[in-house]
Amino acid sequence: MILRSSRNASAPGLSALLRVADLALRDSKAAGQARGTSFRLQLRSWVHAQAEDTQASDFEVCDTLKVIALVSHFRSRGHLVAQLDPLQRVPYGTWHKDGEAQAVWADCGLSTLLENFTAAATPDAQAEVVADYLKLRGSSSPDRRFWLEDPLLPRKPSDQQWWTLPEIVERLRLSYCGTLAVELDHVFKREQQRWLVERLEKRHTPPASERLSILRHLLQADTFERTLASKFPNSKRFGLEGLEALMPGIIALVERCAQHGVQRMEVGMPHRGRLSLLCNLLGKPPGALFGEMEGRQSEFHVGDVKYHLGQSATLACPIQAPGEPPEPAEQAIRVSIAPNPSHLEAVSPVVLGMVRAEQMRARDTDGTRIMGLLIHGDAAFSGLGLVSESLQLSNVKGFSTGGTIHIVLNNQVGFTTGPAEARSCPHPSDVGKIVGAPILHVNADDPDAVVQACIIAADWRARFKRDIVIDIVGYRRLGHNEQDNPVTTLPLSYKAIATHPPVLQLYGQQLQQAGIISQDQMTTWQESSRQQYDDDYKAYKEGKYQETAETWLSSSWQGDALQAFAGGSSVSGAIEVHQEPTGLPPGTLQWVGNCLCDVPEGFNMHPDMAQLLERRRRMFDTKDSRVDWPTAEQLAFGTLVLKRHARPPGCTAQPGQGLNKGHYSVRLTGQDAERGTFNQRHFALYDQTTGRRHEFLNNIKPCSQEMVEVWNSPLNEAGVLGFEYGFSLGIAGTGLVAWEAQFGDFANNAQAMVDQFVSAAEERWGQQSGLVLMLPHGYDGQGPDHSSARPERFLSLSNDDADHLPGHSPSARRQIAATFAAIAGQHGGSLDRKQAMTMLAGLTGGSGDQQEAAELLWTEMGLAPDALVTQEKWEGLMVQYMRRNAEQQANIFVVNATTPAQYFHVLRRQLNRPYNKPLVLFTPKALLHHRPFTSALKDFSTGTFFNRVIDDGKASDNTRHLAKHPKTGEPFLLPADQIRRVVLCSGQIYYALSNARRAKRIRNVVFVRLEQIAPFPHDLLVKVIQGYPAAELVWCQEEPKNMGAWTYVKPRLETALRDLTDCLEAPELHYIGRPTAASPATASMAIHQAEMSEIVRKALSEESLIEQEGAVVPLPA
Ligand SMILES: Cc1ncc(C[n+]2csc(CCOP(=O)(O)OP(=O)(O)O)c2C)c(N)n1
User: Fold this and answer.
1) What is the mean pLDDT of the chain?
2) Is 44 helix (H, G, I), strand (E, B) or coil?
3) Phi and psi of 765, rounded to 5°?
4) Residue 422 CA: which ligand 1 atom is closest?
5) Is the N or the C terminus of the chain less surrounded, counting Cβ atoms within 10 Å?
6) Ligand 1 nearest-atom number relative to CA 378
7) Which residue's CA lies nearest to atom 22 of ligand 1?
8) In this predicted structure, what is the pLDDT of residue 299?
């Protein structure tokens, strides 16, 4: 920007100019508020230009600087006085509280200028207002011109560079204080700020054709809500009324993103407007929705309410380069709205994780093809910490997705809470600033501006691959839901809303005034849109969208059961759960193990690391060498990633033999996960001179393996766990995904993620996740925190029935009976072979030999060929399937592995079995550095697998720890019939018990470790207990009685003993452990040790448990 001077003055020197600049800045109100970096940079470059190019008087220099400051001031703070509230409850800015005349944040000086400027009747008066406001030293003539070289970009290519004061203010007002405003001061890079300035200042009204299509989309959104309101007046829908402009906006956004090459968009959104997007964007048949509105779904496939469900669709978008006409071809984009729980914002990190996983699978390294769109409510976006947890992930290397577009549906109210009560900042979008995301504010009653904002956002993401926020400021025409009366607490707002016309009407009038559409045409459009919904409703009423018995069956596990039996997979009578063999040939183990010790030539490693690697190398010397926990983990990771053709150097055996079902990527994140909180993992090695990194696991056989990623995460639990859960969905069984809590108790910061997603999502929405939660757990005398990962919490979420064995609970029976009623109801209550064959064909899509399948089924049920399947036969078949596949019905697995080999197997089992289930895994802390806490290499080898229960009286188990005398080979324990006590336990307490038993040379007490706590291993445990007929039975734990696994184990073990043993009276189960407590542990090491000694003493005491006063260990005096 340079100044036009009418006087010939001598050229001022640089220092003189800077002095004048200072003077001007002190003078100017505007400048006082515009001291941002961008302003200073502009000023500096301008002053340099002046010094070289022009001759100017001090007054002129001063005045020009003030004008520059004004421009900068508008750019910085125009959003505070923009016309954003459709209800115009305040003259400028956004409304904050009923009954307050002025917006709280509006007074930044610009409001006075704008008020006086718009009130001024003539250009003379306007120039006077501006000159007065800026305290100009020179003329205030409306003809006085300033040459604006860079900042104010002409809207039309008029090459206008000379501007009068009224022109400048008018242009700034329109660009920054109208119905579209921007916040850009916090944007990190100057180039990005300039890009935004250009986009804001260069806006045009869209052409007539675009405006017509905007009108159509508004009409669709408007009629949709009206139809639902009139046909289902008593149903909640969380309508979009007051924010209908979202519809044309989001359509423009999707199209623009597709034009930028996006092929897949994952959307996370809350309740507001969701039904409209499901139907109007993603084509959910309104008829299907009508059924949900009336609550007419099938009896037991109702995972969630209608406004939490998801939907996907492939949309065809026109291909059109900016400024060019559309091309004849179309670009496809797959858009999915993720299902979500009521917990607002919980879905946000989940969607981000899904996006990242899909990007990884598609090798979309910069996020060009796959992206996330998150829609938020205003109260939720400003209020919930999860928002900043998710935002913080956006630019972190292991978590970034190439920028997310955020839309805040700002209806300026959250349930009954207004903006002044909901936050401490001007806009609900302010939290977006923490990651340098530009914020676009837009008035929802200006659909053209909403569409423009969406297009700018799409272009921003394509260009800079960073987050951006669009704050669509509207209102909520009705209550929080449609049954809620908002008027009692917001009387003034709702008075204004009552008389405020819907945006469709306002925009329709605008287009009519502009001659783009006639009143008649508008009426015809409205009529035909209404008619379309009426037709859909009629079709629904005629039963067109009703679920058939076949679709019902195919979405139930009973469909899988039928197919399994019809495929001949029956093993009559067997109920023992099959465990996938996850062991590997010794050669493979040694090969991978040695790669975990190989360091590149010339690598200058820390001496501690050299020692660690030396120890590690010895773990692979012979098959009896002992492997520690961290190495077992690396072995599991390293063998999961190997492709089937990978084989050790020099090995001639069949490649991939015994390796995996497939090959998998591995991802582990958590706070300090890369090194490991307990200094155990050391995923990467650092050169102490150069800082160079070496990742052992990614150098086993780089071209024949998948990647192992281990990332330190930001310090939060809910955001990162949500992200990893989403990642596990996106990776869909092709990779191991694990999240590690720093200490297990911190996982409770992510409790909502566990409750809503990890444990419930499969039942709610059919989402299958194999996510592993690693939770360090164990009582080491470190105080109330860090001791307990709260196993009781996770166990209370397990869906296995405490009182019934799998398949026998009343609810399972009801479910089975309901399915049979649905499928056989139409055939008079039973099925013949032909009907069964038709059903099987429906399930398999007509593939396979239906006749043979029916035959197998009939044999399984013991039916004559012409007999009918009755309800009794169906139930028998399903119960048999359920018992055998009990683990497949589980929602969550809870494991406390006590040996490195068990850890290795359970990690490998996660992928080497036919279904995905979340795994909560309690992991060791102090034990990591405990010498006996190792497993022999042969416990990892072919034929071994994860043991759900370890009976240390059996030499065959994969941990032979002290089972035999090392020298004499004599069994350590007495024969089974001489065992007087079976101590059941889980986790590290086994080592305390075992050490004490050895020290005291006790030979008649056996320890049985519950390695998999849930699903409860009824089958194995009962078998083990029956093997010790003379023994007392006790559960021993280190946690207080109301914590740990006790309350979960007790009823289940009692049920199993009652139903699976022949004894008339099942053995009594005793408890040894800490008494109930409010806090998990004592802070005193001395008390901790005293408690532990007492627990161990009782568990091993000679006295019978029945004779002991009570097995609960009292607190030491
Ligand atoms: C974490 C959480 N806390 C509270 C609620 C209860 N609740 C549901 S909607 C709502 C208001 C949300 O307001 P806003 O985010 O502005 O969205 P709007 O409903 O206005 O579109 C509240 C408090 C919830 N669903 N989730």
Assistant:
1) 87
2) helix
3) -130, 10
4) 16
5) C
6) 16
7) 415
8) 53
Whether the Cβ atoms of residue 459 and residue 199 lie closer than 8 Å to each other: yes
Residue 64: name the closest of 114, 128, 116, 134 by CA.
Answer: 134
Span of 72-76, 343-347, 439-443 with lowest mean pLDDT: 72-76
Residue nearest to atom 20 of ligand 1 (CA): 414
Query: What is the residue with the minimal CA distance to atom 13 of ligand 1?
Result: 414
How far is the C-alpha of 472 from the C-alpha of 778, rounded, in Å?
A: 49
Q: How far apart are CA 680 and CA 673, in angstroms?
A: 10
Q: How far apart are CA 902 and CA 1061, in angstroms?
A: 28
What ligand 1 atom has the least distance to the C-alpha of 381? 15
Q: Is 411 in the pocket of ligand 1 (CB under 6 A)?
A: yes
For 333-344, the pLDDT digits (tens) are 999 999 999 999
- Which residue has tokens 């590149």? 600
pLDDT of residue 11 exceeding 50, the answer is no
Q: Which residue has the tokens 């998948």?
A: 706
What b/e string do you get for 1070-1091 counting C-beta neighbours within 10 Å, with b at 16 or more?
Answer: bbbbbeeeeebbbeeeeebebb
Buried b (16+ CB within 10 A) or exposed e, 138-173: bebebebbbebeebbbeeeeeeebebbbbbbbbbbb
d(CA 211, CA 509): 12
Closest ligand 1 atom to residue 384 Cα is 1
**CA of residue 377 to ligand 1 center, whole Å:** 7
- Cα of 439 vs centre of ligand 1, distance in Å, is 22
Local structure of 541: helix, strand or coil: helix
Ligand 1: residue whose CA is nearest its atom 17: 377
Contact 342 CB / ligand 1 (< 6 Å): yes
Beta-carbon count within 10 A of 137 CB: 17
Q: Which two tokens stand for residue 326?
A: 């559309």
Q: When comparing pLDDT for 1018 and 506, which is higher?
A: 506
1015: cis peptide before it, omega within 30°? Answer: yes
Bridge partners, 440 (sequence order): 182, 470
Question: What pLDDT does residue 497 have?
Answer: 96
Is a pLDDT exceeding 70 seen at residue 271? yes
Q: Is 417 in the pocket of ligand 1 (CB under 6 A)?
A: no
CA 353 to chain centre: 5
CA-CA distance, 900 to 1097, in Å (whole number)? 27
How far is the centre of ligand 1, averaged over its atoms, from the C-alpha of 414 (Å)?
6
* pLDDT reading at 153 higher than 60: no
Of ligand 1's listed atoms, the one at least distance from the Cα of 377 is 15
pLDDT at 560 over 90: no
Indicate the top mutation candidate among 96, 274, 415, 484 to test ligand 1's pocket, ranked by most ligand atoms within 8 A of CB: 415
Say how far apart CA 373 and CA 334 lie, in whole Å.
13
Q: What is the DSSP letter of 485?
A: -
Ligand 1 atom with least separation from CA of 272: 21
Which percentage of the chain shows pLDDT scores above 70? 88
Q: How confident is the model at residue 157 (pLDDT cuts 50, 70, 90)?
A: very low
DSSP H or E stretch at residue 735: strand 735-740
Ligand 1 centroid to Cα of residue 344, in Å, is 6
Ligand 1 binding pocket includes 416 (Cβ within 6 Å): no
Whether ligand 1 lies within 6 angstroms of the CB of 343 is answered as yes
Nearest partner of 72 among 152, 170, 153, 179, judged by Cα: 152
| 162 pLDDT more than 80 | no
Q: For 986-1014, what is each residue's pLDDT tens digit?
A: 999 999 999 999 899 899 999 999 999 99
Q: Which residues contact 614 (CB under 8 A, 6 or more apart)?
A: none
Q: Which two tokens stand for residue 482?
A: 């449609």
CB within 8 Å of 783: residues ≥ 6 apart: 1081, 1082, 1083
Ranges of beta strands (E only) in 671-707 are 684-686, 693-695
More confident residue, 680 or 324: 680
498 C-alpha vs ligand 1 centroid, how far in Å?
Answer: 23
Q: Whose CA is nearest to atom 9 of ligand 1?
A: 415
